[in-house]
From TrEMBL:
It comes from the Bacteria. The gene is tolA. Residues 67-225 are annotated as: Disordered. One of its GO terms (cellular component) is membrane. Gene3D superfamilies: 3.30.1150.10. It comes from Oceanimonas baumannii. The keyword Membrane applies. This is Protein TolA. Residues 82-95, 119-225 have a biased composition (Basic and acidic residues). The chain crosses the membrane at residues 12-31. GO terms for biological process: bacteriocin transport. Keywords: Membrane, Transmembrane, Transmembrane helix. InterPro entries: Tol-Pal_TolA. One of its GO terms (molecular function) is toxin transmembrane transporter activity.
Length: 339
């Protein structure tokens, strides 16, 4: 490309130089295009030849120098223009490359964003599908559980019905057997109770008769003593005091019976206690409040039951007579259970 340009420059330079030489020659010879003169032919040719040789060479040299400067300037301008054009082309190429790279990066980023969006969309779709799958599984599980519970309830109701029927049958059978066994035991117990009651009644009768005989003997002995005392008092002239002592003793016996009756009313007596007894000491306040219950002597079951009856009674009937009241404040009772 530079060789073609140099050839063109040389061609243009030669043409320009020829034109300048032609113009210079025309000015030097004084050519008048409008009013030409006709000098003599010999003189004009010689003069023109002499002028042409001297001045044309100088003019040509000056023109050549000017042309060379012009050509150099044009070459520099062309070179600068070419350099600027190449720089512009290079800048444009680099800008195009950068734009292409930027476009490629943008497209890559856009593709990445699209890929990420598609990935998120796919993940969301998978999540929705997973939720739907879990919901379906939960629904099926709930339905299966409901069916299982219904089946279990049906079986439980059926089993309960069968169990209740079996239990009713067994209960009826057991009741029948229990009634038969109870009747047998009741008959046997009645027979044993009657025999035991007869035995205890005989024993109680025997003990009562013995107690009655003992009390009769004591009463007889006491009466004999009282009679002896009365006889002695009669001999000594003190019959009034004996009457008072007898009256006090009778009052003590009366209130003792009332106290035993009060205890008996609160006494729960079992059939096994019949024919047995307990002797127990009781300390009583003047108003009848029970202060102390001593250790019972006799059958252990009878003594425990008698002590409970005494505690339940709480307050005993007491006479207003100070002498009788004082004698009843320390009682030794013989308690015999009675049905």
């Amino acid at each position: 490309m530079f060789r073609n340009q140099s050839g063109g420059i040389r061609k243009a330079l030669v043409i320009s130089l020829g034109l300048h030489v032609l113009v210079g020659v025309l000015f030097l010879v004084g050519v008048n295009l409008t009013t030409p003169k006709r000098p003599t032919q010999a003189a004009s040719i010689i003069e023109a030849t002499m002028i042409d040789d001297g001045m044309v060479a100088a003019q040509a040299e000056r023109l050549a120098e000017m042309q060379a400067q012009r050509d150099a300037r044009q070459a520099a301008e062309q070179a600068q223009a070419d350099a600027e054009r190449k720089a512009a082309e290079e800048a444009e190429r680099q800008a195009a490359e950068q734009a292409a790279a930027a476009e490629q990066a943008r497209q890559a980023e856009q593709q990445q964003a699209v890929a990420e969006q598609q990935a998120r969309a796919e993940a969301e779709r998978q999540r929705v599908l997973e939720q739907q799958r879990k919901a379906e599984e939960a629904r099926k599980a709930a339905e299966a559980k409901k069916q299982a519970e219904a089946e279990a309830a049906r079986k439980a109701a059926e089993a309960k019905k069968q169990a209740e029927a079996e239990a009713a049958r067994k209960a009826a059978e057991a009741k029948k057997q229990a009634e038969a066994e109870a009747a047998r035991k009741a008959a046997e117990a009645k027979k044993q109770a009657e025999a035991e009651a007869a035995r205890k009644a005989a024993e109680a009768k025997k003990q009562a008769e013995a107690e009655a005989a003992r009390k009769a003997a004591e009463a007889k002995k006491k009466a004999e003593a009282e009679q002896a005392m009365k006889d002695l008092e009669a001999l000594m002239g003190g019959s009034a005091g004996g009457s008072s002592s007898a009256a006090s003793a009778a009052e003590v016996d009366r209130y003792t019976g009332m106290i035993i009756a009060a205890i008996q009313r609160n006494w729960l007596v079992a059939p096994t206690m019949v024919g047995k007894q307990c002797r127990i000491n009781i300390r009583v306040a003047p108003d009848g409040l029970i202060l102390k219950i001593g250790q019972g002597q006799g059958d252990a079951e009878v003594c425990r039951s008698a002590e409970l009856a005494i505690r339940k009674t709480g307050t005993l009937p007491m006479p207003k007579d100070p002498k009788v009241n004082k004698e009843l404040q320390n009682l030794n009772l013989t308690l015999i259970p009675r049905l």
